[in-house]
């Protein structure tokens, strides 16, 4: 006795309809993300500018009438507004990393690392540094997003190595088949490896402000960029023994041979 399935195979028209619905849902999600980013950029920044502006006005026009405690409170208000402004900027960067179209091509990862380190040294020329970048690390991806990725990782290494003399950062790697494995290592304060899985979650911090801890979004942005490139990002560390951030990214694809010329 044969059994006939009650579920018939989807017809091409049904599959096309399901695909159209899925694409419409994705378009709706992107539109909502754009509206959220617009709101973050304009509607939240406007009251922050007002708070900072009024605090400056009070400080500038009534400074002589203010006691030390009032000046301290105004300074705290302005500092809090500045931190909130930075947090909004990071949220916008997280949103952009999630929805920006990928413009894939061969990218000189070593050049981007050198560029990022040079920018940091220009910003803090008084900091003694010992940096080394292995040349010839070529990956496939979006150059702008990969630059942001390295900024997050290298800024993180720099920030938590600032108490060392010199700041020591290494960017080394190798190609294995169609993948490139890169290590970004430092000799900074490190972290407890038990909490490594929390590093790349938004708003998770393993260090307090007194240790250089930030808003908990930088490494979340880095992880999202790696994920969009079909790669992996993980970290190893020990307290007071530095950290190593491991990257697994697609290797640069060889350029196709030129086509036949037509006379």
**Unreliable stretches covering 5 or more consecutive residues:** 1-8
Strand order in the largest sheet: 2-4-5-7-6
* Anisotropy-based shape: globular
What share of residues is helical? Answer: 40-55%
CATH fold-level assignment of the largest domain: Heat Shock Protein 90
| Structural domain tally | 2
Query: N-to-C terminal Cα separation, in Å?
Result: 68 Å
Largest sheet properties: 5 strands, mixed
How many strand segments?
A: 7
Whole-number average pLDDT?
A: 82
Explain what you see.
The chain is α+β, with helices and mostly antiparallel strands and 263 residues long. It has 2 domains: 12-99; 104-250, Histidine kinase-like ATPase, C-terminal domain (Heat Shock Protein 90, 2-Layer Sandwich). It contains 6 helices and 7 strands, in the order αααβαββαββαββ. The strands form 2 sheets. Strands 2-4-5-7-6 form a 5-stranded mixed beta sheet, with helices on one face. A two-stranded antiparallel ribbon has the order 1-3. Helix 4 (109-123) packs across helix 5 (143-159). The longest helix is centred in the first third of the chain and has 32 residues, at 68-99. The protein is globular, with a radius of gyration of 24 Å. Mean pLDDT is 82; it is low at 1-8.
């Amino acid at each position: 006795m044969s059994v006939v399935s009650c579920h018939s195979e989807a017809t091409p028209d049904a599959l096309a309809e399901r695909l159209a619905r899925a694409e419409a849902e994705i378009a709706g999600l992107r539109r909502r993300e754009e509206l959220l980013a617009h709101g973050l950029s304009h509607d939240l920044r406007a009251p922050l500018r007002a708070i900072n502006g009024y605090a400056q006005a009070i400080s500038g026009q009534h400074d002589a009438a203010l006691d030390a405690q009032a000046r301290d409170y105004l300074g705290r208000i302005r500092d809090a507004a500045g931190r909130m402004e930075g947090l909004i900027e990071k949220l916008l960067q997280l949103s952009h990393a999630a929805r920006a179209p990928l413009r894939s091509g061969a990218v000189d990862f070593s050049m981007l690392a050198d560029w990022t380190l040079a920018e940091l040294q220009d910003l803090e020329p008084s900091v003694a540094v010992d940096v080394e970048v292995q040349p010839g690390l070529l990956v496939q991806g979006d150059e702008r997003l990969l630059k942001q990725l390295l900024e997050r990782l290298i800024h993180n290494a720099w920030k938590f190595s600032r108490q060392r003399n010199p700041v020591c950062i290494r960017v080394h790697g190798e190609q294995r088949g169609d993948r490139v494995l890169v290590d970004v290592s430092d000799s900074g304060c490190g972290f407890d490896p038990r909490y490594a899985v929390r590093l790349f979650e938004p708003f998770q911090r393993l260090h307090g402000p007194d240790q250089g801890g930030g808003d908990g979004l930088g490494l979340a942005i880095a992880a999202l960029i790696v994920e969009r490139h079909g790669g992996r990002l993980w970290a190893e560390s020990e307290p007071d023994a530095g950290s190593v951030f491991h990257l697994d990214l697609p290797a640069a694809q060889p350029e196709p041979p030129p086509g036949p010329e037509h006379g």
